[in-house]
Write a structure and sequence with these properties.
Bound molecules: flavin-adenine dinucleotide
Helix content: 25-40%
Shape: elongated
Order of helices and strands: EHEEHHHEHEHEEHEEEEEEHEEEH
Strand content: 15-25%
Largest sheet: 8 strands, mixed
Number of helices: 9
Oligomer: single chain
Length: 338
Amino acid sequence: MADPTAVVIGAGVAGLACALTLAERGIAVEVVERGRTLGDGSCSRMAGGMLAPWCERATTEPQVAEWGASSIGWWAERFPETVLNGSLVVAQPREAAELTRFAARTERFDWIDADRVAELEPDLAGRFRRALFFRGEAHLDPRRALAALASALQQRGVAIRFGVELAPQDAGTEVVVDCRGLAARDALPDLRGVRGEMVVVRAPDVSLDRPVRMLHPRLPLYIVPRGEGVFMIGATMIESERRGPVSVRSAVELLNAAYALHPAFAEADILELGADLRPAFPDNLPEVRRSGRVLHANGLYRHGFLLAPVLARKTADAAQSILHMETSDADLPQRRRA
Ligand SMILES: Cc1cc2nc3c(=O)[nH]c(=O)nc-3n(C[C@H](O)[C@H](O)[C@H](O)COP(=O)(O)OP(=O)(O)OC[C@H]3O[C@@H](n4cnc5c(N)ncnc54)[C@H](O)[C@@H]3O)c2cc1C
């Protein structure tokens, strides 16, 4: 490979998506990652992998849906295991008003009845009278998706150097893309960590084809099928930067939600309990900030997989401008400031 023009620091979803987009635009790039293996020490390993722009629209800024909608095609093209089965939103009968409130805040869904719920997810037959079906949404297995991006980079001759810790100012390339996630706080003082906890279980007696969100006024949760009887149950959203293991309270709440969705989860094996801090800016929207030849691509918050493609496009566009290359993307979404 030619001497790299750009270095990407960090091989989480932001770094890999940025590196691949730069390589696809013909920029010689390499990636450095301080972890010893892919995903080691990265928040991206913990994600649920929901590509759910319209579900997210119910609780976040409109830009999330606008930017996230295009990411489903981006992933499907680069990661054929992306599952395009939509997503389902349900609520316990006593929380039925939550469904109506959720529906009022978003779009691109169908109200469905118990028969249609049973058709889509036979294991949920008879459990919910009404639900919302977002047919245009998708999901993926984040760890396999990261591996697919790494392999796409390898095919393009892009090196990922593991076990290398680099500060942006020490990189010698013409363009430096800082994708260090929360570790970039030295350069981005308004970046904060939002704690998320999740559980992975194996429940061979339960079968789901798509993510299911369970609405609850205090603790909305979701269950994402990973295939072969494995499910990720996530995720808490706690304004805390405490690192460390999942608390008993969170584990109980996550497992209770799964049990409420289907009692067969009571017999599941717990495979993993995990926690990490999502990197977020004050408005919870991602951003590319330029400082000389350094581009800080960060703030993916709870939308790492959903918004990494658009963050990567914006980053590549800024890199091309540093390199005085013509920009191919004229329609990049612009960040709106409040
Ligand atoms: C429980 C949970 C559930 C989630 N669910 C979803 C979901 O369903 N859908 C979704 O889209 N998002 C989800 N997210 C959010 C998503 O995981 C994050 O937004 C995303 O991982 C942030 O990616 P990143 O690449 O910016 O950071 P990271 O993944 O943390 O990557 C940063 C990388 O930089 C490396 N690094 C740091 N400093 C250096 C250095 N000096 N030199 C070299 N390397 C360095 C780190 O080792 C790390 O690998 C979830 C998060 C959590 C915690």
